[in-house]
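Appendix C reproduces, verbatim, an entry submitted by the partner laboratory led by Prof. M.T., so that reviewers can inspect both the input and the predicted structure.
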Amino acid sequence: MVEYTINVHGLPILKGLFIFNFLTRKLGEIKLVIFDMDGTLIDPRIDVANALNVSLTHFNLPHLSYQEIFGMIQNGMKNLMEQALPSSHLPCLQEAASVYRSHYDQHLLDNTTLYPSVRETLDALDHGRKRWSPTNGKNRCIPFWRVLI
């Protein structure tokens, strides 16, 4: 089981269904809960890795394994590209990012899944009449959210 942590007021809350009971019982005055999507609600790692490998192929570079890429995923796509591209290709970062975005935008739901207990958590928030919203810093991706749940 993949575990994830959700922070409330800067404090990490326990994982799994406990968080939803906590949110619905202890935080009665809270009207809205905002979740970061990538890495918190959804696991997009395989689709991210596939998009990165398409970008590497564009420059005739060898693919990286999923495990190699998973270890690089942090702090956004630019950071990922900077880690994956050899230094000789860093001047091509914008082009690599464009190839990545084009592929990812067309395939972002191929393998992306919800983390365990996310659906139950969101249902508990709905049942407790708490409003919630996903965010990810990439407003262009939010409309597909309902497809996952």
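Residues 6-42+112-148 form one domain. Additional entries are available on request from the coordinating office.
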